[in-house]
Amino acid sequence: MSAPEAKHAVEIVGLSKWFKDFQVLKSIDLTVAQGERLVICGPSGSGKSTLIRCINGLETHEKGRVIVQGVELTDDIAQVEAIRRDVGMVFQQFNLFPHLTVLENCTLAPMWVKRVPRGEAERTAMEFLERVHIPEQANKYPGQLSGGQQQRVAIARALCMSPRIMLFDEPTSALDPEMIKEVLETMVELAETGMTMLCVTHEMGFARTVANRVAFMDHGEIVEIAPPQEFFNNPKNERTKEFLGQILH
Amino acid sequence: MAMFPEARPVERFRPLEWLRENLFSSPLNGALTIVALVIIYWLVVPTVQWAIVNAVWTGGSREACLGEGAGACWPFITNRIGLILYGFYDDGERWRPILTFALLVAGILWLTLPRLPRKMLVAVLMVTIYPVVAYCLLTGGLGLGVVPTSRWGGLLLTMVVAVTGILLSLPLGILLALGRRSDLPVVRIASVIFIEFWRGVPLVTVLFMASYMLPLFAPQGVTVDKLLRALIAVALFNSAYMAEVVRGGLQAVAKGQQEAATALGLGYWQSNTLIILPQALRLAIPNIVSTFIGIFKDTTLVSIIGFFDLLGIIQSGTSDSHWASPSTAFTGYLFAAAVFWVFCFSMSRYSRHMERVLNAGERR
Questions:
Q1: Domain of B234?
Q2: B54 part of a folded domain
């Protein structure tokens, strides 16, 4: 099981992955400290989503090691499940369960995976729905909520499993512009609690203010990784400069 | 100036305008309307005259139906109604199929009427306890006289074949559909072979095999009831079709649903039963019910292996010299068609009802 005293939240060594014959990840090395907030950016197809999906085993890797809270991700299903209990994930398309209410979305995994009694699971769910500012929507169905509200429910749903690491896979990319702010604010509030966060996002304002480090990925490699000040003001790699030039107007 | 929402204009129904807009909007449409009316008149009037107006309603034999211009020969049905409903099931024991059927109807009504509580419990009872009760009631034992399945017939037999086919093919089909999408090669290949085998052979062949060839291969002294063999054949045959219907539903569920369930730590069976199947089955309801209706109508094929189902028993009656008349066969087939139509139409309506109930909960 996960050792609470693990030195690193995530440790990735020589990670390579192929889709058929195409290499999407090229020998990635990355260490994320406990409580660190890492933002990963890069052009589409650079492998950034694939990288964070390797951390909870949504994608399998062919070479290298992924160690999460001291537990290595292997073929052993018990170990994979132990890691998934520790890692929450928020998706670009929210992926809420449309046939369940907001509250049921939040209580399902605690009740079935952790065997938490219903009453306790519902109390926890309401706490987190309050933290993301939508307790009044608890008995609605996802289809009745706006995109921003759905994404905040998705964050609350992940938090209900009390994860120690949160993965965000482009959480604002599918949102209408006026809803991006409410989701980012929720993520900032989460960062303030000291949660370890790995965020794939193009929200550079968020990266500047919240991240401890920003990584730039291109063609399956981490081209540059640095604290935001250095990353934005003094990028060293040409590809990073070019990318920043394209997205910062 | 503030804009207040305006009331939507009321549309009054004006019959003449409706006629002009919908039936006579152009010379061609007017002509088509008239042609259609003529065809309807030409079809409906003689049918009604034959089946109702000129029909013979009472009598005890063919003589009643031989009159000049006589229509449908309803005494053929009313005199033989016991045979049509129960086959050769012992007269004094007919309360047993009646009770079995009543329990089935009660269970379905309970699941349909919105006010009644504990639907989940009733549904579970209907698929677990009910088949056992029905089996004991119909075959006998436990103090009840034994009625061999060779005596079952008519609507009773049709219902037995259809209900077991429906009750078994859905769960089997779900398992096969999941198997076909499994990551385990052995499970996947076994499911594909099973599905493609049963979909590749005609039901008639399967029934012949089950009733005449299996006993030849069976070890000495082992006898499996002929009806049971037919029931298993029907269930396996239809589970292959059901598997593909369910697989269609599974494929329509967004990939992200499985990913979200996996990321939350749900295992294979948990994510399938809690997340994927509830959505997939709802999407597949129209096709699942189509398959149910198909199963119900295909029960008529058991007549080729020597069973007298509803249609078979009516058909055998038409060659009875006691009832031979020009209209006997037509009357019998009309009655059989009407009974089948009532059952199939009910299933169709029930499926629409289920879709409405399930969508109302979600309000998407």
A1: 153-309
A2: no
